[in-house]
Amino acid sequence: MAQQVQGVIARAKGEPVRIETITVPDPGPGEAVVKVQACGVCHTDLHYREGSINDDFPFLLGHEAAGVVESVGEGVTEVAPGDFVILNWRAVCGQCRACLRGRPQYCFDTHNARQKMTLADGTELSPALGIGAFAEKTLVAAGQCTKVDPDASPAAAGLLGCGVMAGIGAALNTGNVGRGDSVAVIGCGGVGNAAVMGARLAGAAKIIAVDIDDKKLETAKVLGATHTVNSRSSDPVEAVRELTGGYGADVVIEAVGRPETYEQAFYARDLAGTVVLVGVPTPDMRIELPLLDVFGRGGALKSSWYGDCLPSRDFPMLIDLHRQGRLDLDAFVTETIALEDVEKAFERMRHGDVLRSVVMF
Ligand code: APR
Ligand code: ZN
Ligand code: ZN
């Protein structure tokens, strides 16, 4: 039996979101219905609401979520009713060239649920990032559910579904930060501060946090930064060089997504160092670099897509570390809110007041 639940809907470009009744169909083959327990408010939700991702309104927002599988469709073996799961953006095929080469984040054949959730009048909804978890229940592909230790707090677990995973993964998976490395993180919002935590987890000796906001730098210190640089008051490239004996950092992680910070990241690394780009630029942005600098600096320039994560490998591992007190996911939960307060949370996000607001059900 299809079910009716409440969900946060963005109807049109720039309009405030509102709560509406939605219909969640029974799971079909390869699908699962998940009872959502917690869902973080991410910038991408706001981007959907503002129409800057695509025009497929109406959207059912929310995508950083954890919950319990309620029912599964035919042929589902990945998860069973009662499993505590973290949702990921899309199920990967496991068989294409990208999957076989160990880069599943570039899978050629990802999928989400085939059926659509709908509004009361039958209008089909576009779930944010193929999830749509600002709702009491949501329909996803079973492969989007990763089972983790049920003792983990849902608020902390849900965060691994997006921004925090992107940051930790930028350090661990894309940057391959190693024991004793020096790491600079440019931009210490939710993603950058998660990268700081990832660098600490990997055993980095120096973790230099760079931001224009002292509040964010304070948090970075709590999460493991050994040095902080406010790039409003000092040149971050010079500062990183000074702090690394004149060389630059072994790994520089850019978590802003702007031309000036991309350029800073490029020059703040050691000649053999790695630049990890996790901040997402807009289509109009450009940088210009002397080719001799591109040639003369070895190392690597890598973009990090969803923290190069493999959910089935990374989610349970990070939840275990969290449960052991070695990964402070709770530090990212600035506030827990009700479903009705998502619009207010967007406002706070615009002011840079929060790392994460998390809707609890
Ligand atoms: N130099 C350094 N830090 C900056 C600068 C700058 N020029 N401009 C902004 N910042 C800082 C902000 O002060 C803030 O702390 O960058 C941080 C951005 O953080 P959030 O707005 O919380 O964004 P977040 O969710 O962390 O995402 C950052 O990563 O995955 C991408 O799409 C995401 O592009 C976005 C980026
Ligand atoms: Zn694939
Ligand atoms: Zn997100």
TrEMBL record:
Keywords: Metal-binding, NAD, Oxidoreductase, Zinc. SUPFAM superfamilies: GroES-like, NAD(P)-binding Rossmann-fold domains. GO terms for cellular component: cytosol. Residues 14-359 form the Enoyl reductase (ER) domain. Its cofactor is Zn(2+). GO terms for biological process: formaldehyde catabolic process. The keyword Ligase does not apply. One of its GO terms (molecular function) is zinc ion binding. It comes from the Bacteria. SMART domains: PKS_ER. It is an enzyme of class 1 (oxidoreductase). Its EC number is 1.1.1.306. It holds the Pfam family ADH_zinc_N. InterPro entries: ADH-like_C, ADH-like_N, ADH_Zn_CS, ER, GroES-like_sf, MycoS_dep_FDH, NAD(P)-bd_dom_sf. PANTHER family: ALCOHOL DEHYDROGENASE, ALCOHOL DEHYDROGENASE CLASS-3. Belongs to the zinc-containing alcohol dehydrogenase family. NCBIfam families: mycoS_dep_FDH (TIGR03451). This is S-(Hydroxymethyl)mycothiol dehydrogenase. It comes from Streptomyces alboniger. The lineage of its organism: Bacteria, Bacillati, Actinomycetota, Actinomycetes, Kitasatosporales.
